[in-house]
Amino acid sequence: MEQSVIAKSTGNKAIDPKEAYVLVVEDNLQNLVLIARLLAFIGVRRYEWKASGWQVLEFADTMPRVDLVLMDLHLPYEDGYDALAKLRSDSRFAKTRVVAVTADANPASMEKAKNAGFDGFLGKPIDPDKFPDQIVKILQGHSVWDLGFQT
After folding, report:
1. Rg of the chain on CA atoms, in Å
2. CA 107 to CA 46: how far, in whole Å?
3. Going from the N-terminus, what domains does the chain have, and what CATH number goes with each?
4. 69 in helix, strand or coil?
């Protein structure tokens, strides 16, 4: 079953991928490499990587700005929900687009992510054919909620 929803604009201004600053919070190196390659494919030149949710707010604060956070939900030390709460508690990141990227891709997890305040949801495994377009749409100010391919 495949479920994908692209909602109307979130009200955030559109950002050209070539100008975007992206923070990837991912503890799996293979997933990070895939995400980094797909971000480069759409022209993202500036991305940083954090392998855990621990101190993600402090890490984000070292970047010139953060336009998009791609956040795994299951992370060591602090999970994606804790990291999101900390980002949202800081006025500098309160409006930053934060998208859950998780292997825990099911309707209940997607609903939990919505209720927690995530701006989108991308199920793993990441679909390299869809992911670049999804990120472009998110940077254009749309929210994408996609469980990905489920058997």
Report:
1. 14
2. 32
3. 2-149 (3.40.50.2300)
4. strand
pLDDT confidence of residue 1: 40
- pTM for this one? 0.91
CA–CA dist 12, 96 (Å, integer): 9
Give tens-digit pLDDT for 102-146. 999 999 999 999 999 999 999 999 999 999 999 999 999 999 999
Token readout for 124 is 């793993």
Which of 96, 46, 51 minimizes the C-alpha distance to 74?
A: 51
| CA angle centred on 61, ends 42 and 77, rounded to 5° | 90
What are the C-alpha distances in Å from 9 to residues 16, 17, 114, 141?
15, 17, 16, 5
∠ Cα 3 73 11 (to 5°): 65
DSSP-derived secondary structure letter, 68: E
